[in-house]
Specification:
The chain has 2 domains: 288 residues, no CATH class; 99 residues, no CATH class. Helices cover 27% and strands 36% of the residues. Strands 14, 15, 16, 17, 18, 19, 20 and 21 form an 8-stranded antiparallel β-sheet that branches. The chain has a 6-stranded mixed β-sheet with strand order 1-6-2-3-10-11. It has a 6-stranded mixed β-sheet with strand order 5-4-23-22-26-13. Helix 1 runs parallel beside helix 2 and helix 3 packs across helix 4. It is globular. It starts with a strand and ends with a strand.
Amino acid sequence: MRSIVAVTNEIDDVVSAVRELREQVEEQGPLGAGSVGFVFCDAEMPHDGFIREMKEKFPFDIVGSTGIATFDTKNGTQMMSAALLVLTGDDVSFGASLTGELSRDNLESELRSAYERASSSLGGVPEKMMFLIPPFAAAAPLDAYVSILNRCSGGLPIFGGLPSSSIPDMDIVMFADGGAFMDRAAIVLMGGDVRPLFSVQNILSTFSQAKHEVTDASENVVRGVDNMTFIDYLRKSGLSVDELIAQKDLAVYVSTPLIVNLNVDDADDGVPVVRTIQRLDPSDGSGVLFGSISKHSKVSLASMKRNDIQESAKALVDDIKRKIAEVSGDGYRYSTLFCVSCGGRYMVMADDKNLEGDILLGNLPEGLELAGFYAYGEVCPTVISGGKALNRVHNESIVICAL
């Protein structure tokens, strides 16, 4: 399998944008027997017209979403763009599927049905991994999507991210089957001669090292820590909670995330996950997070600084290069790095928005293409053992998949 990365900065004229993307793909052709595309674009691009034009002009399935910014091999990181990653080869197969409109009542049945359709389209080729593009306006926390698909697939590695937007008031949508949606999810199964590798990095500075027990929580809502309200816990830890609530701005929360050691009943693998506070509710002292948390988990407060972002991006590249080298010893070749980074990291970088992209490009192994986007939640396995993956939802992390 090989990859093709195309990028355009034309976000007003969708016909011209798609023509630029198609010309770049054709220049880097030909395509193999199996192909699929992943496209990520700025929220200001006319979504419906763009994805319809993509469906008309490309002979393979395309999924994707809006994003705060994109990654690509030529530019590293940039806004006001659309980046297309095409995976293609004669030794791989892809199965893409879109759910119907999602609700809490039909989430499991719709995801299971989408998985079964995608699996059937592989024609018996063994499944190797799954890509997930969920809706931002979720019927349930992102963890629920991952948990359901993990059960459906029997522990297949799952990689993806939650759509995001560079403009708070713009629609945050996902793309699939020629449409832009706020209430559906898409999955892509990959089978054949594929050996996916993964890395997760969330290096953070210390705000408060002390670990405290979650005493009241459900899904992505935390109500109590150490038998006090979540807001009182934050106050006791030294945060200026009243100022945070008054600003009502996501950017003020991303610099002080939670480090969470999950409850052992959550199949804890010993790897802490990060949770970003989405909003606080002073009426009951609770907080809504971008990822799930359960009772009896242990939490502590961290801080996200520019140096943390730099160090974790370097650690990510070093880790995935090491893993590629270990597998490539028998002649197997990798062509693609698919990167998803947290939108919170992008906010913290302030005037140095190209920091992560520059690090990735500056250390990109020879012959590999780079593509990806900034998300509001990252999906990546932390452990793969016995052929089964422990798939996790991450916040304020950078994750990567080598293909």
